[in-house]
Amino acid sequence: MTSNSVQVAVIGCGRIAGHHCRSIAGMPGVRLAAVCDLVPEKAKAYGDEFYVPFYTDYRKLLTEHPEISVVAVITPSGMHHEHTLEMIERWGKHVVVEKPTFMKPSQLTDAYAKAAMAGVQMFPVFQNRHNLAVKRVKKAIDSGELGEIRIMAVRTRWCRPQRYYDLAPWRGTFAQDGGCLTNQGIHHVDLLRHLGGEVMRVSATMRTQGAKIEVEDTVVATMTYGDSKVGTLEVTTAARPIDYEASLSIVGSEGLAQIGGIAVNELQVFTPDPSACATNSEDFSGNVYGLGHRAIYEDIAAYFHQMKPYPVTEADALGSIRLLNSFYRSDEASGGWIDVMDGGESSRLGRYDDSLANLYRTPQAC
C-alpha cells in the first residue's frame, strides 16, 4: 500500500461492515486505518481480522488518528444523519454512508449542504448498480436495445422471522430501521430510478403480516413515470420459511429483461441477446451484499487520486430517498396517489425517538 493511500475508518461493526473492510483492504489507493463499535467484541473482531486498531469511542479514534480523511458510517439507519453531521462539522471528514443513506430527503439535503460548507465529499452506497446484470441492462436501455420501456416491475419475496427483528432494539422501528421497503427493498427502489428514470406518482399499500413490529413487512404499489411507462412494486419479508425471489423485470418494445438472484446478480432473461445472460451473471452464493462495495471504494480511490467525480450525485441520491418516502406517504394517505416531486416526507419514517437513539450514541466525554 502506497504512503499516499486515503485513510478510512469504519464506524459500526455489524455484518455489512465486513464487506466494507474487505473492500478497503483489497483496494489500491485506500487503506483501512481503524474500526469502531459500541460493542467491544464487535470492534475487536474486525480489528483482529484486519490488523487495525479498534475502538468503542469514535471520537477517541479520530483524535488518535488525525490522518484519517474518510469515515464510513455503518450505524443503524436512523443514526446516519446525526453521525454524518458530526463527521462533517466537528471532524471535517469525507463520509461514506451505507444504505438507505438517510431516512428523509431533508436529512440528505442538509448533510450535503453541510458537506459543501466544510469542503468534504459524501459517498452514498448503492452497490447493486455495479452488478454486471444491472450494468448490461442499463446499457441496453441507454442504447435503445430494449426499445421503448413500457413496464418496470419489482418483486421481492423474502423471509425475515421474528428472531431477526429481535436481534437489536433498532430493528423493526420507524425511527431507526424502516420496514421491508427501507431495509431490504431500498436497492430495488433505487434501481427503479437508475434504470427507468424518475418516477412521478405512486400509490402504495403497506401491511405488517409476519412479525410483531411497528413497520411494514409487506408493500404493494403502482407507479407512473414521466412518459408512458408504468411500474409495479411488491416487496415482502413475510414469506415463509425461506427467501424465494428478488427480481426486477423490464418490458420494452424490443424485448424483455429480467434480473434476479440473491442481489440482482443474475441476468435471467434478456431476449435481445440470450447469450448475454451467462456472461452477465455473477455467483453471490452466501453473500447477499454482493461484490459492489469493492467497486464503490474503487470509485472513492479514483475520486481522490484521479479527480474523477463520484458517480452517485446529490440529486441522484435525493431522488431515491424521495421516492422511498413517497411510498410511505401514499400508505399514510390510505393508498392515495402521491406526487413524488412535491417535496413531501413521510410522517413515520425516520421519526425522532431520543431514547432509542441514545442506545446508539457514543457518550460525550466529561
Defining key terms:
6-stranded parallel beta sheet, 366 residues, single chain, 8-stranded mixed beta sheet, 2 domains, alpha/beta, Dihydrodipicolinate Reductase, domain 2, Rossmann fold
Describe the protein.
This protein folds into two domains: 6-125, Rossmann fold, CATH 3.40.50.720; 131-287 and 316-340, Dihydrodipicolinate Reductase, domain 2 (2-Layer Sandwich). The longest helix has 19 residues, at 314-332. The chain is globular and about 60 Å long. It has 13 helices and 14 strands. The protein is α/β, with parallel strands linked by helices. Helix 4 (80-89) packs parallel to helix 5, helix 6 (132-143) runs parallel beside helix 9 and helix 9 crosses helix 12 (314-332).
Looking at CATH, the homologous superfamily of the largest domain is Dihydrodipicolinate Reductase, domain 2
**Name of the CATH first level of the largest domain:** Alpha Beta
Task: Give, in order, the helices and strands.
Answer: EHEHEHEHEHEHEHHHEEEEEEHHHEH
Number of strands: 14
What coarse outline follows from CA principal-axis ratios?
A: globular
- Helix share bin: 25-40%
**Integer average pLDDT:** 96
> How many H/I helical runs?
13
* Sequence stretches where pLDDT stays below 50 over 5 or more residues: none
Estimated structural class: alpha/beta
* Major sheet strand order: 13-12-11-7-10-9-8-14
Q: Structurally, how many domains make up the residues?
A: 2
The CATH topology of the largest domain: Dihydrodipicolinate Reductase, domain 2
Proportion of strand residues: 15-25%
Main beta-sheet strand count, sense and barrel state: 8 strands, mixed
